[in-house]
Protein backbone atom coordinates (compact mmCIF):
# COMPACT_ATOMS: atom_id res chain seq x y z
CA UNK A 1 0.00 0.00 0.00
CA UNK A 2 2.72 2.46 1.02
CA UNK A 3 4.81 1.44 -1.98
CA UNK A 4 1.92 2.22 -4.30
CA UNK A 5 1.52 5.65 -2.72
CA UNK A 6 5.24 6.39 -2.92
CA UNK A 7 5.44 5.23 -6.51
CA UNK A 8 2.57 7.56 -7.35
CA UNK A 9 4.32 10.52 -5.74
CA UNK A 10 7.91 9.81 -6.79
CA UNK A 11 8.45 9.57 -10.53
CA UNK A 12 11.46 8.74 -12.65
CA UNK A 13 12.81 12.29 -12.70
CA UNK A 14 12.64 12.58 -8.93
CA UNK A 15 14.53 9.32 -8.47
CA UNK A 16 17.28 10.53 -10.82
CA UNK A 17 17.54 13.83 -8.94
CA UNK A 18 17.78 12.01 -5.60
CA UNK A 19 20.47 9.68 -7.01
CA UNK A 20 22.51 12.65 -8.27
CA UNK A 21 22.23 14.41 -4.90
CA UNK A 22 23.36 11.25 -3.07
CA UNK A 23 26.28 10.89 -5.49
CA UNK A 24 27.31 14.51 -4.93
CA UNK A 25 26.99 14.30 -1.13
CA UNK A 26 28.75 10.98 -0.57
CA UNK A 27 30.94 10.59 -3.64
CA UNK A 28 31.53 7.52 -5.77
CA UNK A 29 33.84 5.81 -3.26
CA UNK A 30 31.54 6.06 -0.24
CA UNK A 31 28.37 4.75 -1.88
CA UNK A 32 29.54 1.09 -2.10
CA UNK A 33 30.58 1.25 1.56
CA UNK A 34 27.19 2.64 2.51
CA UNK A 35 25.39 -0.06 0.54
CA UNK A 36 27.56 -2.77 2.12
CA UNK A 37 26.68 -1.45 5.56
CA UNK A 38 23.02 -1.31 4.64
CA UNK A 39 23.14 -4.89 3.37
CA UNK A 40 24.81 -6.10 6.56
CA UNK A 41 22.19 -4.29 8.63
CA UNK A 42 19.34 -5.87 6.68
CA UNK A 43 20.88 -9.35 6.97
CA UNK A 44 21.39 -8.91 10.74
CA UNK A 45 17.78 -7.81 11.08
CA UNK A 46 16.56 -10.87 9.16
CA UNK A 47 18.74 -13.16 11.27
CA UNK A 48 17.42 -11.64 14.50
CA UNK A 49 13.85 -11.93 13.22
CA UNK A 50 14.35 -15.60 12.38
CA UNK A 51 15.90 -16.27 15.80
CA UNK A 52 12.91 -14.70 17.55
CA UNK A 53 10.48 -16.65 15.35
CA UNK A 54 12.29 -19.91 16.16
CA UNK A 55 12.19 -19.19 19.90
CA UNK A 56 8.48 -18.40 19.75
CA UNK A 57 7.80 -21.59 17.80
CA UNK A 58 9.87 -23.64 20.27
CA UNK A 59 8.04 -22.13 23.23
CA UNK A 60 4.69 -22.79 21.57
CA UNK A 61 5.55 -26.42 20.84
CA UNK A 62 6.81 -26.90 24.43
CA UNK A 63 3.56 -25.48 25.76
CA UNK A 64 1.54 -27.76 23.50
CA UNK A 65 3.54 -30.81 24.65
CA UNK A 66 3.04 -29.94 28.31
CA UNK A 67 -0.65 -29.35 27.69
CA UNK A 68 -1.11 -32.74 26.01
CA UNK A 69 0.87 -34.50 28.77
CA UNK A 70 -1.27 -32.81 31.40
CA UNK A 71 -4.47 -33.99 29.68
CA UNK A 72 -3.11 -37.55 29.50
CA UNK A 73 -2.23 -37.59 33.21
CA UNK A 74 -5.65 -36.15 34.08
CA UNK A 75 -7.34 -38.99 32.17
CA UNK A 76 -5.22 -41.59 33.97
CA UNK A 77 -6.10 -40.07 37.32
CA UNK A 78 -9.82 -40.29 36.57
CA UNK A 79 -9.63 -44.00 35.72
Jot down its keywords.
single chain; 79 residues; mainly alpha; elongated
Report on this model:
- The chain has helices at residues 2-9, 12-78.
- The chain has 79 residues and is an all-alpha fold.
- The longest helix has 67 residues, at 12-78.
- The chain has one domain (2-78).
- The radius of gyration is 26 Å and the shape is elongated.
Low-confidence stretches: none
What is the beta-strand fraction? under 5%
Alpha carbon gyration radius: 26 Å
- H/E element string? HH
User: In which range does the helix fraction lie?
Assistant: over 70%
Number of β-strand runs = 0
How is this fold's topology laid out?
Blueprint (H helix, E strand, L loop, with lengths): L1 H8 L2 H67 L1
Q: In a few lines, what is going on in this structure?
A:
With 79 residues, this protein is mostly helical. The chain has one domain (2-78). The protein is built from two helices and no strands.
